[in-house]
Design brief:
3 helices; about 70% helix; mainly alpha
């Protein structure tokens, strides 16, 4: 059975999701660095840094690493399939490529 081509709306959504997915690690790490900066300044100013905030910073840092590893694994899978990443993005933007790993069945 032949695959149905993606509609323009499906392709656009897929493209946006892939771009967001690739940017999530840096966005999360930015949030972690900002929160860590605030905690460090509070400590320097001899203010109590709530334990919940310190744990949140650590959780953000861990999440950033986990997402970065997942995106790296998805890139490796694309490369294993013989797909060059820049070409993948161009083809995705043109609507001539199937979804990236792990995104094919998402609404």
């Amino acid at each position: 059975m032949a695959e149905q081509p993606m509609t323009d709306a499906e392709r656009e959504l897929l493209e946006q999701r892939w771009a967001a997915r690739v940017n999530v690690p840096s966005e999360v790490m930015h949030a972690a660095r900002t929160a860590r900066w605030a905690v460090d300044h509070a400590v320097y100013a001899r203010l109590d840094a709530p334990a919940v905030v310190v744990r949140a910073v650590e959780a953000l840092e861990g999440w950033a690493i986990a997402v970065q590893q997942r995106v790296a694994a998805e890139r490796e899978e694309l490369e294993r399939r013989g797909v060059e990443i820049a070409r993948f993005q161009r083809d995705l933007e043109r609507g001539t490529l199937s979804p990236p790993p792990d995104q094919g069945s998402q609404p």
